[in-house]
Amino acid sequence: MKYVEIGLGNRWLVRTETELADGSEYEQKGMVRPIKLHSVYIRCWAGHTVYVFDIRSGFKRTRKSRKAVKLIFGISSYL
To answer: Are 23 and 30 in contact (CB under 8 A)?
Structure first.
């Protein structure tokens, strides 16, 4: 899967994270094409709590061990 994220709190304002089949992942600055739309999501990370609203899987709330503040609009894409 490929995740294109736009927002505050990541290393870059626009970034693409690619997850490979072997479980490894890497980040690239900017939007890496092609984008084959799978889902669209909004992620809000406040302290240890992360709220995600995804058009495919709905609303989720999770807890993380690390504190952060992020507001992200994302697109998940097939490779």
So the answer is: no
